[in-house]
Amino acid sequence: MSSSTRAFTALLHRFSTSIPLKSPNSFNIQGGVRLYKNLSSSSLYSSCANVFAPVEFRYANSVRKIWTRGPLCMGRRSCKIAGRKGVQDAKKAKLYAKVGKEVVSAVKKGGPNPISNTALASILEKAKELDVPKDILERNIKRASDKNQEAYIEKIYEVYGYGGVGLIVEVSTDKINRSVARVREVVKDCGGKMADPGSIIFKFKRARVVNVKVTDADKDQLLTIALDVGADDVIEPSMDDDDDSEEDKTERYYKIVSSSENYTEILSKLREEGITFEQDNGSELLPLNMIEVDDEAMELNKELMSNLLDLDDVDAVYTDQR
């Protein structure tokens, strides 16, 4: 798409009205021995929001509510940037790069010995849980000893996309001027607009997240686990793409959302149940409300997010697009 076409499309979407979606429907949970549900396949999903009947677990008088939502970040078919495998590989590369930057910064501040450098020891322990290759850790510890290597600084940039969508760009960089210049360039080329600090971030909340493939666990099983360990949300992926292959569907994830206090307990419970999962890298930003846009805006936002993620300094991009 040419720059002139992007600019014209961006102008049109500046006047478009976004459709905010209310926080999706929830499962009402009361205790946890017997499961009652009244769901029909036709009532599970609608075109704009998921509609669920309540699911009750009874063994006590306490009542908890676990919210379920549609997919986050890329949304619907726009999740497919360059094929599912390519997306997963890119996610791993971003994860390894972010952990590597954290190692460099920790070594710069406290030295390369994890015994005396508690910050480094904590990062190495997290890297072990995330299955970060040992050679990446060793390479970054060595790189930190280079006197020309500066410590990394974390920054957040806020961006307006198409159709009223907001984006949060998380950056970790050793050259602030370089990172902001490259982010601005991508946003301008893709027809977006840089937002003032605080204009979009309030629409998100930061939380700990465990990702579980839909093929690795049953929904009711995850809801029971979430209840037992006091999780806040169970976010469900969209299942309404009729043209998705079976391979596409195996790359969808449930998201178990929790506070930092009970995150470890959730991981332990999943291990006990033999459920494979992927941890976050400290936290994720989750939108408080989702925005529905048309297909054209969706594709334009997808291109914007993809190009931002191609930047080495960018660690993650979050959006409230449904």
What's the average pLDDT?
A: 77
Number of strands: 15
Helix content: 25-40%
- Continuous helix count: 9
Assess the beta-strand content as a share of residues: 15-25%
Structure description:
This protein is of the alpha+beta class. Helices cover 36% and strands 21% of the residues. It is built from 9 helices and 15 strands. The protein has helices at residues 3-14, 84-110, 118-129, 134-144, 176-189, 219-229, 246-249, 263-272, 295-309; strands at residues 19-21, 26-29, 34-36, 56-58, 64-67, 153-160, 166-173, 193-194, 204-213, 233-235, 253-258, 278-279, 284-287, 290-292, 314-319. Strands 9, 10, 11, 12 and 13 form a 5-stranded antiparallel sheet that branches. It has a 4-stranded antiparallel sheet with strand order 8-6-7-15. Helix 2 runs antiparallel to helix 3 and helix 2 packs parallel to helix 4 (134-144). Residues 15-59, 65-71 and 73-83 have low confidence and may be disordered.
